[in-house]
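Quick entry between incubations.
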Amino acid sequence: MGAENATRVAPGEVGTVACVGAGVIGGGWAAYFLARGYDVVAWDPAPDAETRLRHLVDQAWPALTELGLADGAGRDRLRYEPELGDAVGSADFVQESAPEDLELKIKLLADIDAVTPPHVVVSSSTSGFGMSEMQGRCDHPGRMVVGHPFNPPYLIPLVEVVGGAATSADVVAWTSEFFRVAGKSVITMDREVPGFIANRLQEALWREALHMVAEGEATVEQIDLSITDGPGLRWPVQGPMLTFHLAGGQGGMAHMLDHFGPSLKSPWTRLVAADLTPELRDAVVHGCGREAAGRSIDDLVAERDRGVIAVLRALGRVP
Amino acid sequence: MGAENATRVAPGEVGTVACVGAGVIGGGWAAYFLARGYDVVAWDPAPDAETRLRHLVDQAWPALTELGLADGAGRDRLRYEPELGDAVGSADFVQESAPEDLELKIKLLADIDAVTPPHVVVSSSTSGFGMSEMQGRCDHPGRMVVGHPFNPPYLIPLVEVVGGAATSADVVAWTSEFFRVAGKSVITMDREVPGFIANRLQEALWREALHMVAEGEATVEQIDLSITDGPGLRWPVQGPMLTFHLAGGQGGMAHMLDHFGPSLKSPWTRLVAADLTPELRDAVVHGCGREAAGRSIDDLVAERDRGVIAVLRALGRVP
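Done. Structure below.
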């Protein structure tokens, strides 16, 4: 790393964040960083970008205020700059949230790279491209990393962090720690997978939903209701793996896979199932065991029930 | 319908429910119906069935009590019968929740059919078989219907109701109304689709998750965290369709599909995407419009934000 690393601030010392691209995601990031007490400088090439950005921040602000602002946080600490170089020149961290267009991203990241001090980490909100595909024209590809948020970035905690082939491992670690300090829930991936993790999962669901609409098997409204009133009530409480851990009764995931494994051959989705090898079976069973971390099935059932009730009540759906 | 229908009680007049099969799902149903003030008679061939059933009901009872029991509801209104005929003979409604084994279900439904008064509706909790596959050996196939719940049936509102080829349309309507009266959120499907709706969607996600574990792309814990801290926080509030309606900014689903449509060709899941024809595009856009029912994007954003905050707070994840 050497000289490039010499002046990079510690993750907890970041004071100014540059948001490059100020649409729904970039504007949401700007609102989030402002609420967490950062100075935010934004740039976007659209003619009405500043107006739209300030609308997005205003729209997010009641939610952020309700959640509690950091000391000194304020919307007056947002500055819009019409020139990219002026936006990133004083930043300790850059978050790029341009439209999802590979050529555009490649060029924009090179432009950012050219005008951002080389020790500053540049993170992309891309929802599916790998940094290896995007960093090729940068002179300093080592500081380019993916930090993929979920809409709205000011409320959904998850950020997936993953580097490209030319990204420094230090930068992946620094970025993960920066987002943690900034209050996010971070998954650091050790390899590039198209769509990362959560987007692959929701994309599989989304594609099946589109197939169902295309075939007349379900309406848009039925699809949404089937999730909001069904499995969607469990997922903020326990993920899909722990959910199925409990579907196996006292036998947990082991029972589930050993008994329902054959249903993987059923045409329950257009996605062909993984081959349930003994290795995969064991990986899933042991993963659930690690995640349960000593909690019994009864413990997990009680946690789930408390969580689902809390969610239902929070949404005003039960007294 | 004639004679068979002559003595069927109205959906709101059901007093006694028979639960055939008393595992995690059947026991969960028993607990739910007890809490809603029904008399419940249960049968299960396992030697320790009654003990397990009473454990399941006891485990569910604190949650059900917290949500509020119906007048007169009580666990003392649960009766276990060692003979199937004694369990179903006095029931106004039968819910079958046997293991997911087609041959077993076909035989069990025929057994139930033989000893249940012919006017009584028999509903199956099957998570994926169509009633057409299961009702073949019944003398009264017209009263056989699928009523598919989600685990735990005593907390998750959704029930998917769908008949088989030989099911009477009256029975589908009666069953939908019965579950509504009993407090469930009902989707009535007009055709059989393997896995119904919600299970197809969560199965697509589950299969992609298994592929990721099999390929070493993500751990079990990362998969769960990616959902509980990511899209899972939105799904109890707005389903996948409305979620993406908001991903398009002010342009909504139309903008989303017109701009992100090409990403359907990306390898973001192993599920091949639907062909985004103009017809499919319009069906999805118009469906979101119907579901929004006059609410603007800003209205929906505000609703989502209130909902996600309520969920986060309910789960103790924000102050």
